[in-house]
Task: inverse folding
């Protein structure tokens, strides 16, 4: 079912991409209705899942279903053994969707017979896929309605904070940059950046291996790297950060996440130069709180010879890095939707070969992105060490004067200001306060607290034309 | 012999008499300046600490405000004093929560704590070793260089509005002195500067000097150590006795300036400057005479507005026909410095100095004192200086 849904999504996204090149907007809604017709037999519970995919909104405005027939035929062939057509969806479900986004521009229903789709595990997998999809297509709000085995559920995948990024070839992406990490207790209300700030990395041309060319993949293939580091600590320049996890997500040219484990990325840590990065090691791990599916997750361990005593007293915020690999392909001889879909499937099928064929360049690209990320981390650490060393001198000197003063008014004033009873408590209280004010110094940044565009979805007027 | 000596010094004596008249006008005012007592200094330091504690009690980052000692905008000129810091001056903020300034914040606090202890015990740290050096070597990682300690002591002196000497911190002296002068250091050591072959280091504790005895007719400030040594070698102080020669070895340190000021305050004799005929030498002479921007907050104790320019004058180069190969073309930097000097407020009251500097601008050449050896090896001590002093060749 997931593969089938991916195929349908691919068709819609490829259509949208073509329209994007015309400068049209990319926001809107996507409805996924899944419901079961369960047949009960004496031996086995057979599960037939009906699926309806519907799209509305500016991102698919102007699409004519009749014009899509050749592509739909090809789609149906690639989605065998789906059953076409299937039961029609509940009109009320569709009307609720059209009320939000306007008339439907795309509607396709199919049926799959498979017991696996009736399990909660599969549903979780589907939701993870949709979250990963939304991550790089934050302009599209997804409504997932499930009615499996009499149990109904509704999930909406919408984004709180999004950011438009422009890649090469004027390709625009809307990324979900929402950061859900809770602020540390030292942070005042309203002073925590809830968004990440994507950084556009290098664009790397990829050479197509000969065996893949023999299968029919030609043209120019490249990968654009985008990084997203969260949570954002830009307003807190004195806090040390520690990169603990890296997740790699690969998206095919239609911006659909590539699912399935990648041998290439799983072996990547072994070839990274950890010493150059100042890291103890990077290794592939199964991050239990994995929100996004299809990616490869690494755990990062830093140098073990850092002073553990100093480290425990220095405030450090752990960060995670998302590495997006956006595959891009262009071939002047491929412009029909059907050809584009076939090309994408080829890319996905031979992705491991392609990645291995460009191993050196890809490893260098990852090394560069990590180096850039860790440069900031290392700088923060040095700054914090400087503050820490100076703080000890400031406290020592101040306490030396207070302790040796014979001016009772002065001593009492110092004790009463800090609400303590003796110089011993004063020293501890001053230390704690100095450390707090210097470490958590807040410098508001416009890009962290701006209320422009990134927060609100595109304000597009739906059209009234019917399919 | 006596009449010859008397004739030789006649112009100097006339100048001396003239200076004494002016001194009577300013002395009472200068003496009116009170010394700040130890308790007041402790109170001022305590108020800084209390401000820091108060900031932390409000969860605010502590901040120190240092008067800006490098800006001409904070300077005013008084012909009787020289360059002094304005009462309303701009400040530089040193924050404890900013990595770029936190080290300086810590350095200031460290030295404040040292000064506090010294003032409390009302002692000077050592008799023979400079405390600046002590502070530096006890905390090399914190300060990085002795120069950093020197600068921060000046900042603290300016911030607390307390003379450096009252902080009980002694700076290194690099200057040398020789001639008709005896005095006693604070620790009772007797200093005799009469030796013709070796000079005495300028004291680190000028304010502690007592019992100054001298019959010198004048004091000569010499820009460079090389020239100073030359005069020593040529037994200048014996031949043109009685006099005192002093050098700060280039840009003078505070102790050298304090010494010149002290000699003026005690002896009220003419003070001449012998500097290279170049913008750098003129600027050094102006530091002795009018003070510097960096130390303007303590101008009263450092400046000697009565300093006269004895040589080497740009007009001397033409008059004496110094060989051209001994002259050096002005660089772009020299020309820029010369323009800057001409715009300084203190030169508006020195038309003769302005004339000499404009002559240098027009001729586009400069010369070191050593250029006089191109005329004759001992021209400086045998001809040039004696004639200058005999015939009043100063401006």
Result:
């Amino acid at each position: 079912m997931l593969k089938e849904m991916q195929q349908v999504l691919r068709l819609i996204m490829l259509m949208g991409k073509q329209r994007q090149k015309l400068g049209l907007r990319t926001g809107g809604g996507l409805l996924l209705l899944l419901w079961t017709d369960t047949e009960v037999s004496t031996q086995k519970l057979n599960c037939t899942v009906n699926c309806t995919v519907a799209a509305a909104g500016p991102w698919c405005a102007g699409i004519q279903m009749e014009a899509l027939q050749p592509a739909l035929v090809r789609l149906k062939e690639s989605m065998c053994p789906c059953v076409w057509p299937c039961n029609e969806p509940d009109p009320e479900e569709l009307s609720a969707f059209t009320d939000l986004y306007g008339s439907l521009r795309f509607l396709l229903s199919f049926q799959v017979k498979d017991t696996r789709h009736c399990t909660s595990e599969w549903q979780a997998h589907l939701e993870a896929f949709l979250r990963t999809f939304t991550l790089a297509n934050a302009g599209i709000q997804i409504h997932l309605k499930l009615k499996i085995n009499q149990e109904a559920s509704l999930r909406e995948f919408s984004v709180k904070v999004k950011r438009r990024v422009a890649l090469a070839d004027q390709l625009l992406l809307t990324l979900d940059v929402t950061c859900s990490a809770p602020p540390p207790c030292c942070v005042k209300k309203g002073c925590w950046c809830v968004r990440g700030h994507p950084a556009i990395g290098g664009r790397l041309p990829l050479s197509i291996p000969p065996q893949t060319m023999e299968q029919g993949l030609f043209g120019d293939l490249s990968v654009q790297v985008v990084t997203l580091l969260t949570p954002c600590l830009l307003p807190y320049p004195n806090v040390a950060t520690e990169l603990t996890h890296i997740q790699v997500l690969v998206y095919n040219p239609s911006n659909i996440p590539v699912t399935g484990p990648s041998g290439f990325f799983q072996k990547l840590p072994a070839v990274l130069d950890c010493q150059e990065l100042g890291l103890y090691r990077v290794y592939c791990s199964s991050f239990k709180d994995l929100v996004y599916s299809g990616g490869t997750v690494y755990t990062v361990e830093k140098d073990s010879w850092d002073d553990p005593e100093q480290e425990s007293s220095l405030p450090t915020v752990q960060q995670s890095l998302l590495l997006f690999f956006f595959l891009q392909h262009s071939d002047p001889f491929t412009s029909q939707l059907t050809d584009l879909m076939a090309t994408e499937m080829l890319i996905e099928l031979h992705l491991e070969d392609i990645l291995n064929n460009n191993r050196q360049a890809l490893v260098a690209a990852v090394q560069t992105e990590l180096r850039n990320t860790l440069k900031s981390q290392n700088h923060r650490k040095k700054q914090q060490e400087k503050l820490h060393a100076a703080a000890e001198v400031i406290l020592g000197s101040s306490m030396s004067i207070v302790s040796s003063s014979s001016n009772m008014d002065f001593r009492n004033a110092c004790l009463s200001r800090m609400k303590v009873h003796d110089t011993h408590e004063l020293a501890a209280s001053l230390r704690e306060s100095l450390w707090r004010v210097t470490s958590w110094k807040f410098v508001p940044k416009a890009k962290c607290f701006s209320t422009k565009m990134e927060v609100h979805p595109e304000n597009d007027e739906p059209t009234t034309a019917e399919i | 012999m006596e009449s010859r000596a008397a004739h030789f010094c006649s112009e100097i004596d006339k100048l001396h008499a003239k200076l004494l008249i002016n001194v009577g006008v300013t002395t009472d005012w200068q003496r009116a300046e009170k010394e700040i007592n130890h308790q007041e200094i402790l109170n001022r330091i305590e108020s800084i600490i209390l401000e820091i504690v108060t900031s932390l009690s409000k969860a605010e980052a502590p901040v120190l405000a240092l008067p800006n000692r490098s800006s001409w905008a904070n300077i005013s000129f008084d012909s009787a004093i020289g360059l002094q810091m304005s009462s309303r001056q701009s400040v530089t903020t040193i924050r404890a929560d900013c990595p770029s300034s936190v080290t300086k914040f810590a350095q200031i606090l460290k030295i404040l704590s040292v000064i506090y202890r010294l003032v409390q015990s009302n002692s000077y740290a050592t008799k023979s070793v400079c405390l600046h050096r002590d502070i530096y070597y006890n905390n090399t990682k914190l300060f990085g260089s002795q120069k950093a300690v020197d600068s921060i002591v000046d900042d603290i002196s300016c911030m607390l509005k307390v003379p450096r000497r009252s902080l009980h911190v002694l700076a290194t002296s690099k200057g040398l002195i020789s001639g008709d002068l005896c005095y006693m250091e604070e620790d009772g050591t007797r200093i005799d500067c009469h030796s013709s072959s070796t000079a005495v280091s300028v004291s680190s504790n000028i304010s502690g000097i007592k019992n100054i005895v001298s019959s010198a007719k004048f004091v000569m400030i010499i820009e460079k150590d090389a020239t100073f040594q030359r005069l020593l070698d040529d037994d200048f102080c014996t031949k043109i006795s009685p006099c005192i020669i002093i050098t700060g070895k280039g840009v003078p340190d505070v102790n050298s300036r304090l010494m010149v000021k002290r000699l003026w305050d005690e002896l009220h004799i003419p003070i001449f400057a012998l500097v290279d005929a170049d913008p750098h030498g003129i600027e050094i002479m102006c530091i002795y005479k009018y003070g510097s921007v960096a130390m303007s907050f303590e101008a009263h104790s450092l400046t000697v507005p009565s300093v006269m320019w004895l040589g080497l004058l740009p007009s001397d180069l033409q008059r004496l026909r110094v060989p051209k190969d001994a002259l050096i073309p002005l660089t772009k930097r020299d020309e820029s410095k010369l323009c800057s000097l001409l715009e300084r407020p203190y030169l508006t009251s020195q038309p003769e100095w302005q004339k000499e500097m404009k002559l240098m601008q027009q001729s586009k050449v400069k010369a070191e004192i050593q250029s006089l050896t191109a005329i004759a090896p001992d021209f400086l001590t045998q001809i040039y200086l004696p004639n200058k002093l005999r015939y009043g060749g100063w401006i």
